Amino acid sequence: MEYRLGTSLRVKSRGETVELTCPNCKKKVNFGVFSNLERRFVPKVTLLDCNTVYFLVCPECASIYTVDEAKGDSFKKGQKLSIGNFDLKTLKKFKPEND
């Protein structure tokens, strides 16, 4: 399976979360938070739409989760408690699997 975590070549580290429980390995860990830009061409005046994609990596099992852009922006501004266990979302498939 392929997943897309933004389209930019620059992935930025944004720090670590407070202690959260990983949905995959069930251990309490501080997730590493990273961000990347996702640019899309859209029929607007600017023709380019930029969104920031935030993703978290479990240091124990290397599972990757994403959070809403608003939660990630709050975290980036220093609000460590803006990301909690219920904010973690599984990644959406970018391309379907070939059978």
Overview of this protein structure:
It is a single chain. The protein is globular, with a radius of gyration of 15 Å. Helix content is 8%, strand content 38%. The model has no long low-confidence stretch (mean pLDDT 80). The protein starts with 11 loop residues before the first strand and ends in a 23-residue tail after the last helix. The relative contact order is 0.25. The chain has 99 residues and is mainly beta. The chain has a four-stranded antiparallel beta sheet with strand order 1-2-3-4, covered by helices on one side. It has one helix and four strands; from the N terminus they run ββββα.
Mean pLDDT: 80
Task: Tell me the structural class.
Answer: mainly beta
How do the SSEs run, as a string of H and E?
EEEEH
Low-pLDDT residue intervals, each spanning 5 or more residues: none
Portion of residues in beta strands equals 35-45%
Number of strands: 4
Number of helices: 1
User: How are the strands of the largest sheet arranged?
Assistant: 1-2-3-4
Main beta sheet, described? 4 strands, antiparallel
Radius of gyration: 15 Å
Terminal-residue CA separation: 11 Å
Relative helix content? under 10%
Task: Give the overall form.
Answer: globular
